[in-house]
TrEMBL record:
Active site: E47
Protein name (record): Phenazine biosynthesis protein PhzF family
SUPFAM superfamilies listed in its UniProt record: Diaminopimelate epimerase-like (SSF54506)
InterPro entries assigned: Phenazine_PhzF-like (IPR003719)
Keywords: Isomerase
A GO CC term assigned to this protein in UniProt: cytoplasm
Annotated family: Belongs to the PhzF family.
GO molecular function term, any single one: isomerase activity
Organism, as annotated: Paludibacter jiangxiensis
Organism domain of life: Bacteria
Pfam short name (any one): PhzC-PhzF
Length: 300
């Protein structure tokens, strides 16, 4: 029997039962994919992260992510949770770690503040897909329960990705954002057509000075009807805003805070930093708080 150390971490918040919950298995060496999927299904979070020892000198370890139904290549809130759990387990100081993921080796930074931590995740390569044709864009709007009048026409409907793609849909108002009621079956069917499982609706309509955007993210094709606070949506959103000239860099840097999860009672805040490199590529980082909901052991 192997005894697994398991955390449930609420990411992008310091308040328990807010933000986005993720499972973390900190000693996953030897687990099979079947066992990881069973554990993820049992914990029943949108994602569970599994930490493995390094198998070579190129990184400090490996990390894999599972929803209750399948493996996914990367996950923002589960990365924040995993690095937070490792920091607690090993009483780490401020440090930088490199982890091997399905989208390559990524650097993560742990910042120690007295006895607590924040985590910075450098995301994968930013990519922006071509605009959808009118018919497909209209199907997305309708499946989300929106009308043409709700859409912010400054914001093209297109896929943005830093390793786990999301469709970006700009909404004129928080009222429209909060009232939308998606048809999850239609969204899941659309995911197969456009090869993208996440739909991120956002608005600039904010009455809080340090919050630029409010958002909601839906991914029913992978069993997540609505995700509370999504790193792999807010991060790519930063690149999307720069690429579409909806925001500007200051000395090659654009930073903002995005809020998500309010409508489902799990609000959280993600800090996003976009850096324009010398070769005109965009490097994207997200930073967040975290807190432990519980820690337990599983024998398997």
């Amino acid at each position: 029997m192997k005894q697994l150390t398991v955390y449930q971490i609420d990411s992008f918040t310091k308040e328990k039962f807010k933000g986005n919950p993720a499972g973390v298995v900190v000693n996953a060496d030897g687990l099979s994919e079947t066992e990881m999927l069973a554990i993820a299904r049992e914990l029943n979070n949108s994602e569970t992260a599994f930490l493995f020892s390094s198998d070579d000198s190129s990184c400090d370890g490996k990390i894999r992510y599972f929803t209750p139904t399948r493996e996914v290549p990367t996950c923002g809130h589960a990365t924040i949770a995993a690095m937070y759990a490792r920091a607690l387990e090993e009483n780490l100081g401020s440090c930088a770690l490199k982890y091997k993921t399905q989208i390559g080796i990524l650097p993560f930074e742990i910042i120690r503040n007295n006895v607590d931590y924040q985590v910075i995740m450098t995301q994968g390569k930013f990519e922006l897909s071509p605009l959808f044709d009118h018919e497909t864009a209209q199907r997305i709007v309708t499946a989300l329960g929106l009308t043409d009048d709700d859409i912010d026409r400054r914001c093209p409907i297109q896929i943005a990705s830093t390793g786990h793609s999301k469709v970006m849909i700009g909404i004129k108002s928080r009222k429209a954002l909060n009232r939308l009621t998606p048809n999850f079956n239609d969204l899941a069917a659309l995911s197969k057509v456009i090869n993208c499982n996440g739909f991120f609706a956002f608005t600039f309509d904010s009455n809080t000075e340090n919050i630029l955007t409010h958002g909601r993210m839906f991914a029913p094709a992978i069993g997540i009807n609505e995700d509370p606070v999504t790193g792999n949506a807010n991060g790519p959103l930063g690149g999307y805003l720069i690429a579409n000239k909806l925001a500007k860099t200051d000395n090659s840097v654009f930073e903002f805070n995005g809020m998500q999860g309010e409508q489902i009672g799990r609000p959280g805040i993600i800090a996003v930093k976009v850096t324009a490199t010398d070769d005109d590529h965009l490097s994207i980082q997200i930073k967040g708080d975290a807190t432990v909901a519980f820690k337990t052991t599983i024998e398997i």
